[in-house]
Write a sequence for this structure.
């Protein structure tokens, strides 16, 4: 079977004020195995068409509905293979559900939707259509985060007793949404972001570390959420204690008002036989702690013999050459690409188990329970979905 480049569509991400469109486009093109085929890149139809032309998409559409319908009508081998969704949260579900219904795979930005009910409907549509679906929790694409997941599963640190996950930022320490910042405006608007601002935007990443690395889930949460900056409609500080499904303790801390923090996210997985720690500020290394022994440090690089075969295809550079944020995001695109190629019977590496539709719903359930708990001054609330 002749292998062709993946044809990738994109909804959102056009215009100078879009943060995440450009990283996704770079990630899609990084390995020369995919191309930018179809785009509905802005909410205004004329601007969407102009943006698609400016960014060298093969086909431009004025609306995501036209994109899905137009691509679905094209013959097999000419339409897009999957759709990348990089809009604000309130515009995820529509194009994702439509693409799934048309048999088109989806890579969707997080959080999955704005409500749990909406996420459950999307989950049902994706299951019924049986299409590949990846949720863009970018940090799970870092090889050392993937290695941490594998080492926990291999029993390196024994039984997990506690997981701490954090994500501080400082960029919303002032009311930037009142200063004309488009990125700040939609992230602090309940209609576009959902019921939690900080929790949905970056607390979701921290919780996904618990799910992805430790393979554990929150069953009950006690949360405190606060809008620290006066006049802000949504939380800019988010803290959750969680009871995990094995009885372990989960701690999620996220903040957008921590002046000096620069996406300093990370995790610590604490077991009966040791601890693993990863920090985004030192993204190329994973630390392993054991009582009364020197710290062991794993580092990223294709020529390190301890990198397992499940992760090696996701590495591109020898040791000492950093592979960062764009490469991590490209690894999620690799996962959906290799999933699609494998389903077609094409030769491709086995895809890693990156977050999918079930993870997206589970994060929304965690956020919904956390919001309910915070409204009751931290009362313990059951998490309503634990897929």
């Amino acid at each position: 079977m002749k292998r062709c480049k993946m044809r990738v569509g994109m909804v959102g991400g056009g215009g100078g004020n879009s943060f995440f469109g450009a990283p996704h486009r770079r990630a899609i093109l990084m390995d020369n195995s995919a191309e930018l085929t179809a785009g509905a890149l802005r909410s205004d139809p004329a601007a969407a068409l102009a943006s698609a032309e400016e960014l060298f998409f093969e086909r431009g559409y004025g609306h995501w509905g036209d994109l899905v319908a137009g691509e679905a009508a094209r013959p097999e081998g000419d339409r897009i293979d999957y759709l990348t969704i990089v809009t604000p949260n309130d515009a995820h579900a529509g194009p994702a559900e439509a693409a799934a219904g048309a048999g088109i795979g989806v890579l969707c930005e997080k959080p999955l939707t704005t409500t749990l009910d909406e996420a459950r409907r999307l989950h049902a549509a994706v299951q019924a259509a049986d299409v590949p679906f990846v949720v863009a929790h970018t940090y799970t694409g870092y090889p050392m985060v993937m290695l941490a997941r594998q080492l926990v599963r291999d029993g390196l640190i024994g039984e997990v007793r506690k997981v701490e996950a954090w994500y501080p930022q400082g960029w919303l320490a002032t009311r930037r949404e009142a200063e004309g910042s488009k990125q700040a405006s939609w992230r602090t608007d309940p209609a576009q972001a959902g019921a939690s601002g900080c929790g949905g935007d970056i607390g979701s990443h921290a919780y996904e570390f618990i799910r992805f690395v430790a393979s554990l889930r929150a069953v009950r949460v006690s949360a405190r959420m606060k809008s620290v900056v006066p006049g802000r409609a949504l939380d800019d500080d988010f803290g959750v204690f969680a009871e995990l499904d094995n009885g372990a303790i989960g701690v999620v801390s996220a903040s957008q008002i921590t002046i000096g923090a620069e996406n300093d996210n990370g995790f610590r997985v604490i077991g009966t036989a040791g601890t693993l720690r990863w920090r985004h500020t030192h993204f190329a290394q994973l630390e392993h702690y054991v009582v009364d022994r020197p710290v062991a440090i794993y580092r990223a690089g294709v020529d390190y013999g301890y990198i397992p075969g499940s992760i090696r295809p996701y590495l591109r550079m020898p040791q000492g050459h950093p592979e960062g944020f764009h490469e991590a995001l490209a690894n999620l695109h690799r996962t959906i690409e290799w999933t699609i190629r494998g389903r077609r019977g094409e030769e491709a590496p086995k895809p890693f188990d990156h977050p999918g539709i079930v993870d997206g719903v589970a994060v929304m359930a965690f956020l919904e329970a956390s919001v309910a708990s915070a409204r009751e001054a931290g009362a313990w609330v059951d998490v309503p979905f634990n897929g």
Summary: The two ends are 36 Å apart (CA to CA). The chain is about 35% helix and 20% strand.
